[in-house]
Structures are given as structure tokens and as C-alpha cells.
Amino acid sequence: MENRSLSVVAGLIALLAMPLATLAAEPGAETEQQASWRERLDKAAALQSESKALKEEGLKRSEQKYLECDKKFLVNSCRIDADREYMKTTHEARRLEAEGRALEREVKKEQMADREQRRAEAAPRREAEMQGREADTAASRQAAEQKAEAARADKAKKAAEGEKRKAEQAEKHRQKLEAHNAKVAAKKLEAERRATEDGVKK
């Protein structure tokens, strides 16, 4: 168990010692903060994985010891020792698991704080964009209303011009009719006058 724990610790130290510059050099590389979060989350996962492995190994050893204790003269003393060893292993596994979970919580807390900070920093820009969109919408609405008003005014003007034309045409027709009627009346009077003059001569 001791050797296994030392190898895990050495592996984690090697992982943490890996330079962040190698990660940042790649195209589309993560930021230093994101790399740190990823490494710590990897470490947390490794700790929890090691904890699980320790628990399983401790249980197997305990079962094996119990079987061996049955063959010994001081069975209870042997079992007590096996239980102590199992408790030690379990305690170490729980410590590793708690450490991993604490690390995970710390990273998640930092990520949440980072998201909140980004949201707060972006709020004025989003507000300005929203106001810009509202201003654009209001301007578009006003332009559309002005266009509609101009169309209504043009339609009313054309309607008024049409009415005026109709009135002018009606007036011309009335004058024409009046002139025609006057002409007819004048011809009729002339005809009557001639008829009376012809009747006087006879």
C-alpha cells in the first residue's frame, strides 16, 4: 500500500510540474487559468480513483487476512489486526477522496466566480447593444410610420386631385350642356320668329 501511494503521489507531482507554456503554445490553446483548472480537476479525479482502488484493495486484503486468521491459533487477535489495517486503508482512502472532492469544489467555485465576473464585465456591453438594438428598432418603426404617413398623404392628395378633376369635368359638361341648350333655344326662337314673319307676309 505504501509503495502504491508513493507512486501515485510521484505521478501527481509530475503532472503538476508539467509546464503550462507547452499547453499555451498549441493553436487554440486554453488559457493559463483553464489549464490550471483542468490540471486540478484531473488531480481530483486521480485522487478519487486512487481512493476507490485503495478501498477495493483494502477489502480484498481484509477478506484474505480473515481467511488466514482462521488457520491461526489466536484468531481474534489476528482479526483485530486485520480490522485495524482495513480501517487504516479505509481512512487513507476517505482522506484521498475528501481531498479530491475539496479540490473539485474549489475549482468549481473559481469557475463560477469567473463566469460571474465575465457576466458582470459583459453586462455594460450587452446593455449598450440592447439599447442600440432598441434605438435601431425605434428608428425603423419611425421610418416605417413616416413612409406609411407619406403614402397616406399621397393617396389623399391623389384622391383630392381626382375629385377636383371630376368636378372640373362635371363643370365643363354642365357648361357644354348649357351652351347646347342655349343654342337649341336660340335656334328654336329663330325658327319661331321666322315662322311668325312668314305668317305675317302671307
What does this structure look like?
The protein has one domain (2-150). By secondary structure, it is mostly helical. Residues 8-27 have low confidence and may be disordered. It has four helices and no strands.
The total number of structural domains is 1
Q: Residue share in helices? A: over 70%
Largest sheet: none
Tell me the total number of β-strands.
0
Radius of gyration: 52 Å
Inertia-based shape = rod-shaped
Briefly note the structural class of the backbone. Answer: mainly alpha
String of helices and strands: HHHH
Q: Tell me what portion of residues adopts beta-strand conformation.
A: under 5%
* Head-to-tail CA distance between termini: 162 Å
Separate helix tally: 4
Summary keywords:
92% helix; rod-shaped; 202 residues; mainly alpha
Protein topology:
Blueprint: H1 2-17, H2 20-24, H3 32-69, H4 75-201
Helix pairs in contact: 1-3, 3-4
Structure summarized in a few sentences:
The protein is an all-alpha fold and 202 residues long.
